[in-house]
């Protein structure tokens, strides 16, 4: 076995030692260095290796090291991990050297060693600092040169040589499935420089570097750059055969929900090209600050983000309501941790329960003096609600009526319903139930049965929500495909969860009663193009007729029952602008509350009796009564009647 192999084995054995054993070795090394420092201080001052003055006071070589070890321990040097020593360690070593020098002075003064050359102290300080600091830096370099070797880990390029990139590179040295190979940065001042042992290249060099260095991954380390710039970078990387990953957004890092060194899949916001939305802080603060705020469905995708954003505005109380114990526990724990970090004095209340229980809802509203209510609880998965129509009607439509009436009875000031574009000309049960929920709030607002101001906020799909195609596509790509798309022509509106939640809060703050607000979703996105971009940014190629040797295929599985090629956001054409450029108001006719109340009562009886046929017929009739949905009613009712026939058991012969 050669010297190199012996060295590698020695380093590995040292790394495998316990923390106490490593501390003992460090103390022993310091005990060897400190006597040398005492002798060097006298030698450099007096000019002779064994000057008469030194031979008289030779015992200092033995007395000072134990005192120095105690000073080092007090200064915290033995709590450092050698391979992670950073710039702050230099200050700590200097402080320890200074404390040891003061102890040296004290010994000389106590022992009255006169005459004593005072310059020895300064020389001793410098020698201790250089020897002990240098020894630790050498140990760090020695261990990191061992740990930074790939050892089967995948080489990556870090795009962004700033502080976040350097921190990520240091993190990858000791842990993770990747090892940093080089930096990419578009700042000409950094190109050609070496940062943390890694060279910085220009973006134009990346295609050649991918081939030469066998790079399969590019990590974007630019959490604070404007989204438009990130989108441009992502687009430039799309044609390259690399898997693009990114660090969390700066907003998540600042809030404590993520750390700088966390690596995740590319943010789909960067794929879709949507810019950030400016928030009207005055409007949001007026709606939330100092108020008792409640969110139903608080554990869900939208509900949890509403809770986070409400928490940031320091309400007096935040009531989280959900029927899922696990989801409620998770968001409650997250918010309590965030409140502790930010030292926020917000009362957080987590309540289990069902929004279908009107007595429970009214009791909660009264007990916690709820002023602002965001109703985000709903079943959202189209296929599941389609096959569980009665539960969809109960939870989405009838529960909204329960919550709204309870809010009126308890004197809740504002109630905001989170709705969906699938409520416009609904072709499926989920959309029809959300349309009926909208009608309930509109009718109650017009009837003015209580002090509550009702508002409806309607928008399309939110990225990375539980019902979004994005997590499905990611999972399919991770398993090698195929990626399933319903139809080559299908399009959907998309918006980030954070953006949608911020706009919901602002729209609700504008409400005067009964408005239907619609969020500006931008241009609809072609789902097949979204799938192609996600495949390419995962480092794979699309397998199709033009590229039969590609990695991952896209399969078209056909539209599911009740699914539309294109979604709508509005009924009619009367659309008004609001004070916010991303929020519009649509003017839509509603149904008189007494008539709708009768229909809802009949629907409740049908659902309680498990009468699928009667319940679905009443659902269709209720949405048709708004005079806006005759086409949707005919198509949906016909399809539901057909499904009812399929559900009938075959007749047995007599």
UniProtKB/TrEMBL annotation:
Ranges that cross the membrane: 24-44, 56-81, 119-139
InterPro entries referenced in this protein's UniProt entry, alphabetically: NAD(P)-bd_dom_sf, Polysac_CapD-like, Polysaccharide_Synthase-Rel
Signal sequence segment: none
Residue ranges occupied by any Polysaccharide biosynthesis protein CapD-like domain in the UniProt entry: 293-586
SUPFAM superfamilies listed in its UniProt record: NAD(P)-binding Rossmann-fold domains
Gene3D superfamilies: NAD(P)-binding Rossmann-like Domain
UniProt keyword annotations, A-Z: Membrane, Transmembrane, Transmembrane helix
Pfam families referenced in this protein's UniProt entry, alphabetically: Polysacc_synt_2
Coiled coil, from the record: none
Family: Belongs to the polysaccharide synthase family.
Descriptive protein name: NAD-dependent epimerase/dehydratase family protein
Organism annotation: Spiribacter salilacus
């Amino acid at each position: 076995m050669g010297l190199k192999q012996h060295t590698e084995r020695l380093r590995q054995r040292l790394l495998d030692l316990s923390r106490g054993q490593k501390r003992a070795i460090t103390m022993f090394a310091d005990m060897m260095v400190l006597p040398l420092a005492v002798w060097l201080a006298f030698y450099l001052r007096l000019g002779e290796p064994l000057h008469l003055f030194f031979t008289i006071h030779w015992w200092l070589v033995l007395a000072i090291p134990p005192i120095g070890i105690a000073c080092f321990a007090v200064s915290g040097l033995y709590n450092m991990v050698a391979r992670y020593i950073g710039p702050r360690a230099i200050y700590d070593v200097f402080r320890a050297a200074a404390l040891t020098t003061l102890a040296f002075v004290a010994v000389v003064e106590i022992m009255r060693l006169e005459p004593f050359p005072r310059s020895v102290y300064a020389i001793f300080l410098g020698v201790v600092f250089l020897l002990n600091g240098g020894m630790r830096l050498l140990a760090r370099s020695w261990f990191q040169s061992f740990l930074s070797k790939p050892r089967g880990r995948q080489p990556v390029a870090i795009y962004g040589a700033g502080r976040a990139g350097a921190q990520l590179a240091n993190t990858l040295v000791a842990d993770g499935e990747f090892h940093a190979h080089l930096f990419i940065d578009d700042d000409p001042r950094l190109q050609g420089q070496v940062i943390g042992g890694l060279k910085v290249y220009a973006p134009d060099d990346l295609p050649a570097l991918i081939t030469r260095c066998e790079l399969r991954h590019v990590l974007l380390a630019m959490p604070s750059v404007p989204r438009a710039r990130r989108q441009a970078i992502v687009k430039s990387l799309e044609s390259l055969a690399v898997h693009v990953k990114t660090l969390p957004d700066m907003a998540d890092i600042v809030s404590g929900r993520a750390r700088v060194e966390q690596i995740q899949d590319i943010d789909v916001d960067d794929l879709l090209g949507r810019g950030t939305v400016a928030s009207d802080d005055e409007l949001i603060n007026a709606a939330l600050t100092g108020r008792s705020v409640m969110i139903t469905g608080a554990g869900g995708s939208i509900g949890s983000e509403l809770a986070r954003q409400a928490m940031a505005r320091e309400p007096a109380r935040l009531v989280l309501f959900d029927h899922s114990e696990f989801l409620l526990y998770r968001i409650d724990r997250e918010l309590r941790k965030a409140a502790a970090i930010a030292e926020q004095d917000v009362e957080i209340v987590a309540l289990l329960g069902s929004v279908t229980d009107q007595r429970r809802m009214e009791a909660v509203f009264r007990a916690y003096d709820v002023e602002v209510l965001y109703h985000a609880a709903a079943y959202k998965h189209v296929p599941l609600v389609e096959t569980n129509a009665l539960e969809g009607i109960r939870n989405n439509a009838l529960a909204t009526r329960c919550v709204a009436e309870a809010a009126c009875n308890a004197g809740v000031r504002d109630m905001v319903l989170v709705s969906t574009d699938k409520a416009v000309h609904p072709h499926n049960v989920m959309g029809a139930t959300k349309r009926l929920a909208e009608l309930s709030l509109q009718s109650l607002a017009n009837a003015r049965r209580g002090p509550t101001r009702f508002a409806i906020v309607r928008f399309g799909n939110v990225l990375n929500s539980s019902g979004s195609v994005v997590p499905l596509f990611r999972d399919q790509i991770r398993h090698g495909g195929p990626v399933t798309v319903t139809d080559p022509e299908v399009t959907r509106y998309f918006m980030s969860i954070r953006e949608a939640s911020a706009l919901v809060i602002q729209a609700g703050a504008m409400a005067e009663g009964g408005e239907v607000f619609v969020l500006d979703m931008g241009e609809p996105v072609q789902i097949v193009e979204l799938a192609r971009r996600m495949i390419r940014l995962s480092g794979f190629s699309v397998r199709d007729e033009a590229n039969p040797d590609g990695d991952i295929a896209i399969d078209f599985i056909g539209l599911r029952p009740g699914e539309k090629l294109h979604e709508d956001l509005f009924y009619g054409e009367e659309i008004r602008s609001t004070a916010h450029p991303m929020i519009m108001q649509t003017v839509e006719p509603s149904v008189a509350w007494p008539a709708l109340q009768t229909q809802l009562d009949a629907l409740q009886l049908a659902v309680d009796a498990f009468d699928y046929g009667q319940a679905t017929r009443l659902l269709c009739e209720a949405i048709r009564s708004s005079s806006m949905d005759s086409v949707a009613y005919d198509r949906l009712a016909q399809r539901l009647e057909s499904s009812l026939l399929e559900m009938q058991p075959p007749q047995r012969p007599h």
